[in-house]
Every structure is written in structure tokens, then in C-alpha cells.
Design brief:
Elements: H1 11-18, H2 24-40, H3 44-54, H4 58-85
Helix pairs in contact: 2-3
């Protein structure tokens, strides 16, 4: 037996229903900081250094995220290959 439930709500309503916090103000602060940095950056190197400082956990966080995405991609490719073989 299959049951299909469709819920029509806004992202804000879904976030409230699931009990997730509203991070709109924090997101706006982050976007404003990056915008200001991009306007004041004299070179690409300055912009990269600023971005590394803003990223969660700096360079380590970026590397962890990259490894996570690469392993997820490898897993998905392996699952697709297995599915195609059958």
C-alpha cells in the first residue's frame, strides 16, 4: 500500500513546523560582509584570504566539505554502476 501526502506551504512555514531556527538575520549579515569585502578587495588574492577567514573552520572546513562531496560523488557513481550492471 502506498500513501502519497502533499503539503503546500512556504519555506518559512515548513521551518517553523519542523522547529528549525530562523537564520535570516545571520544570513543577511554574512551576505553583507562578503559584499563589502568584494567591493574593497584590490586583488583576487585579498578576496580569497577574506573568504578563507569567513568560511566555517577556515581552510580545514573547506577541505572537509570538498572531501565530503568527492566521497558522495564516488558513492553515487558506484551505486549507478552497480545498478547499470544488473
Amino acid at each position: 500500500m502506498k500513501v502519497h501526502v502533499e503539503i503546500d506551504c512556504t519555506p518559512e512555514e515548513a521551518r517553523t513546523f519542523l522547529g528549525l531556527p530562523d537564520v535570516g538575520k545571520a544570513n543577511q549579515f554574512y551576505v553583507d560582509a562578503i559584499s563589502k569585502a568584494m567591493k574593497g578587495a584590490g586583488s583576487v588574492d585579498q578576496l580569497q584570504e577574506f573568504a578563507k577567514g569567513l568560511a566555517p573552520m577556515g581552510q580545514v572546513g573547506m577541505k572537509l566539505f570538498q572531501n565530503f562531496m568527492e566521497s558522495g560523488n564516488a558513492f553515487a557513481a558506484g551505486a549507478k554502476k552497480t545498478r547499470d550492471d544488473t
